[in-house]
């Protein structure tokens, strides 16, 4: 089946406004500087709100079209033209872009509103909203681009915005370092993405989605090329989404303000990798090995995230590892292919709601507790911040997958789909997903109980924790409603909505029934909750306990991922640098300095011949004249 | 007329002058030796002028004499002022302009 995109008509020909609005907001806020301090946050929020309304209008127009014509491309201008390379700045609005546009602008708008309250005491609030708008614009470009190069432009844009926002409090060394780490880890992935784009251009002569997908479907390529394109795209996706082996930057990114963690490092940017794989589904569907690698990375990462999540005491870091592991579920789903593409996207949407809600809830707790992030220092907060407690509870129940909240409708089908893979792979990947669900229930229960229940273990400087203002709790409530309702509403409607993108899939024989999988998952989840409840209902020790087992020790060290990077990547790099510095100092500089010293020393000796005695000069003139005459005689008569 | 005698004489005068410039210390004597070398050159010019039957060489020697006269004025003035400041007319004492 050929992929053909229809040109944009009607209101859809204005879809460039989606990107232009937040971009204009960012430009105005950055250029006006301090003059915009008083109203900058309102402008920043308004542009994203307007983009959300526009997104809704476009969505409605798209849904009015017949099933097989649901796509709209808009060619803005020629971006690059050089020989046979012709890249247009084109946009594509299809069902997949539509759900992302709504997620980004919708959840983004709520987080902007929340940030008005959260950042109200910060001097840099205008700068913050400028970067936030920049991020939204770049992210929309990422999901709206109709070729890989435009997507890459947006991809880099979100990377820059993420860097600026992680190190937003740049006079904190840890924040500045975390920003650099995120940027570097992303660069590794970006290099992979770029190589994939080069390969596409070499094989298809174009980077348009349409040409690339039809070229892959035509099956003219060597399977090695398709595999290479797939794996390099996957490397890019792993960098952006914090998947193994590039997951270490994501937890450190929590150094940024909490709304940043919620918007960028939970709900939207980190899901760009999932979008990339889902968007490139013709490439991955064409090569089983590439799919297998995606599934393996997803399964491995979801376990890594869960295990480390159990060992952390920083509320934002636990949520960060939980994000790593939930995105692992999404990778698992999009790697399984076929019907599971849509499952990955649905989980992504549901996750966007409940994880944004959880992060904003964590921010609200920190707001009331003098920016304390250590869950050993919370406890009993449910009485003091009722809104935060209740919305966090809903988000928590949604993430562990309790029916009828959204996680149940989106995670269980992924586990089931993993089990139904053929042969041993089904058991391995299904088992990993199932185990992950149990561990998720454990560490989220631990987080929830230690934060909101049990005895108070506050530091002395906190007299009376306070609930956050309404401007922060209203977004929390909206996101909580989304966490409750989204899963049930989306589980079938979004699958149908995405059918034009991913195609119809036939149901094949299932090795495990729906009810068995759900039963098993529920059993493990309940087990995890009960164990955590029994262990932590009386609170926990304030100091770090000595680790008794290897797994605990390893999990506290992030499973040695940082140590590995230091030893295998950083150390050789540092040794190489040192060697190069030595060669530069001794070799290159040696030659330059030696030459200068030789000339200097030589002339110091030579000037001794300037004795100051007139007769020695006269002698040299005379001997010069004699030599000239002798030479003339030799030439003339010789 | 054979030019040999004149040329040998000029060469002898020039050599005496050159050696004098190189070996003597008294500025006046050095100066006179320079004059000797100039006049040796003049003699050569006049000799060849005569042999070739043209006046170019003789005119050139007049120029040399004029320049030498001007040079004598300046040179003697310099020697005088050096002598005044140093109480010596030795060229070896005027050796400040060196490394």
Mean pLDDT of chain A: 86
N-end to C-end Cα span of chain A: 95 Å
Q: Percent helix among the residues of chain B? A: over 70%
H and E string of chain A? HHEEHHHHHHHHHHHHHHHHHHHHH
The helix/strand series of chain B, from N terminus to C terminus, equals HHH
Radius of gyration of chain B: 16 Å
Pfam families (chain B): Oxidored_q2
Catalytic activity (chain B): a quinone + NADH + 5 H(+)(in) = a quinol + NAD(+) + 4 H(+)(out)
Membrane topology (chain B): Multi-pass membrane protein
EC number (chain B): 7.1.1.-
Characterise the protein shown here.
Chain A: Pfam families: Proton_antipo_M, Proton_antipo_N. Chain A: One of its GO terms (cellular component) is membrane. Chain A: Residues 80-129 form the NADH-Ubiquinone oxidoreductase (complex I) chain 5 N-terminal domain. Chain A: GO terms for molecular function: NADH dehydrogenase (ubiquinone) activity; NADH dehydrogenase activity. Chain A: This is NADH-quinone oxidoreductase subunit L. Chain B: It is an enzyme of class 7 (translocase). Chain A has a two-stranded antiparallel ribbon. Helices cover 72% and strands 3% of the residues of chain A. Chain A has a domain at 164-558. The model of chain A has no long low-confidence stretch (mean pLDDT 86). Chain A is globular, with a radius of gyration of 31 Å. Chain A is built from 23 helices and 2 strands. In chain A, strand 1 (72-82) and strand 2 (85-93) form a beta hairpin. In chain A, helix 1 (16-32) packs antiparallel against helix 2 (40-63), helix 15 (340-368) runs antiparallel to helix 16 (386-400) and helix 17 packs parallel to helix 19 (470-502). Chain A has 638 residues and is mainly alpha-helical. Chain A has helices at residues 16-32, 40-63, 95-118, 125-144, 148-166, 173-204, 209-217, 223-241, 249-252, 258-267, 272-279, 281-285, 288-311, 315-336, 340-368, 386-400, 406-419, 423-452, 470-502, 514-536, 550-556, 561-606, 614-637, and strands at residues 72-82, 85-93. Chain B is an all-alpha fold and 99 residues long. Chain B has a domain at 26-86: Helix Hairpins. Chain B has 3 helices and no strands. Chains A and B meet through helix 23 of A and helix 1 of B.
């Amino acid at each position: 089946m050929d992929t053909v995109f229809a040109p944009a008509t009607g209101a859809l020909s204005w879809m460039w406004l989606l990107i232009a609005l937040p971009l204009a907001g960012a430009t105005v806020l950055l250029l006006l500087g301090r003059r915009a301090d008083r109203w900058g946050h309102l402008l920043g929020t308004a542009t994203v709100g307007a983009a959300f309304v526009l997104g809704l209008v476009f969505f409605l127009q798209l849904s009015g079209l017949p099933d097989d014509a649901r796509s709209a491309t808009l060619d803005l201008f020629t971006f690059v033209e050089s020989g046979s390379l012709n890249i247009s700045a084109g946009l594509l609005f299809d069902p997949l872009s539509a759900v992302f546009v709504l997620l980004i602008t919708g959840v983004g708008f709520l987080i902007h509103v929340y940030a008005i309250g959260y950042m109200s005491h910060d001097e840099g609030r205008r700068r913050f909203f400028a970067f936030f708008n920049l991020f939204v614009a770049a992210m929309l470009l990422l999901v709206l681009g109709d070729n890989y190069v435009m997507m890459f432009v947006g991809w880099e844009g979100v990377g820059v915005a993420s860097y600026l926002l992680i190190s937003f409090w740049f006079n904190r060394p840890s924040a500045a370092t975390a920003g650099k780490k995120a940027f570097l880890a992303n660069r590794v992935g970006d290099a992979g993405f770029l190589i994939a784009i080069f390969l596409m251009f070499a094989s298809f002569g174009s980077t348009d989605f349409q040409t690339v997908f039809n070229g892959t479907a035509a099956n003219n390529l060597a399977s090695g090329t398709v595999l290479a394109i797939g794996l390099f795209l996957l490397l890019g996706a792993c960098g952006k989404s914090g998947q193994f082996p590039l997951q270490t930057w994501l937890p450190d990114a929590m150094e940024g303000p909490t709304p940043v963690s919620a918007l960028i490092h939970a709900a939207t940017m980190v899901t760009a990798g999932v979008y990339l794989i889902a968007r490139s589904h013709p490439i991955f569907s064409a090569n089983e090995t590439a799919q297998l690698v995606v599934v393996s990375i997803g399964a491995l990462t979801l376990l890594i995230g869960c295990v480390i999540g159990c060992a952390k005491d920083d509320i934002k870091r636990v949520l960060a590892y939980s994000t790593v592991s939930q995105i692992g579920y999404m990778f698992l789903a999009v790697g399984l292919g076929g019907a599971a593409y849509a499952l990955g996207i649905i989980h992504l949407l549901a996750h966007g709601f409940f994880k944004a809600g959880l992060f904003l809830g964590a921010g609200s707790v920190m707001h009331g507790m003098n920016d304390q992030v250590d869950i050993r220092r919370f406890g009993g907060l449910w009485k003091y911040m009722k809104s935060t407690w209740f919305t966090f509870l809903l988000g928590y129940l949604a993430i562990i997958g309790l029916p009828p909240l959204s996680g149940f409708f989106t995670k269980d089908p992924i586990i089931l789909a993993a089990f139904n893979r053929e042969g041993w792979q089904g058991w391995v990947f299904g088992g990993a997903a199932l185990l992950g669900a149990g561990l998720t229930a454990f560490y989220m229960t631990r987080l929830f109980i230690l934060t909101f229940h049990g005895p108070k273990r506050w530091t002395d400087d906190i007299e009376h924790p306070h609930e956050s203002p309404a401007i922060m709790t209203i977004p929390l409530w909206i996101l909580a409603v989304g966490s409750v309702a989204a899963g049930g509403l989306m589980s079938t409607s979004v699958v149908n909505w995405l059918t034009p993108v991913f195609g119809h899939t036939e149901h094949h024989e299932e090795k495990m029934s729906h009810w068995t999988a759900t039963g098993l998952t529920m059993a493990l989840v309940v087990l995890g909750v009960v164990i955590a409840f029994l262990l932590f209902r009386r609170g926990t020790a304030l100091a770090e306990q000595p680790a008794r087992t290897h797994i605990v020790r390893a999990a506290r060290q992030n499973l040695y991922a940082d140590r590995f990077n230091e030893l295998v990547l950083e150390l050789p790099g540092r040794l190489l640098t040192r060697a190069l510095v030595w060669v530069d100092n001794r070799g290159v500089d040696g030659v330059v300095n030696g030459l200068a010293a030789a000339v200097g020393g030589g002339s110091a000796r030579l000037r001794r011949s300037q004795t100051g005695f007139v007769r020695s000069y006269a002698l040299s003139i005379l001997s010069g004249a004699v030599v000239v005459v002798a030479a003339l005689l030799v030439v003339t008569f010789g | 007329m054979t030019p040999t005698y004149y040329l040998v004489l000029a060469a002898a005068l020039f050599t005496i002058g050159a050696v004098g410039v190189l070996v003597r210390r008294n500025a006046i004597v050095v100066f006179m030796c320079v004059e000797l070398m100039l006049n040796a050159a003049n003699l050569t010019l006049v000799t060849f002028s005569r042999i070739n039957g043209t006046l170019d060489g003789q005119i050139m020697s007049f120029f040399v004499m004029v320049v030498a006269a001007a040079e004598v004025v300046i040179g003697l003035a310099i020697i005088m002022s050096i002598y005044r400041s140093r109480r010596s007319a030795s060229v070896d004492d005027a050796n400040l302009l060196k490394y």
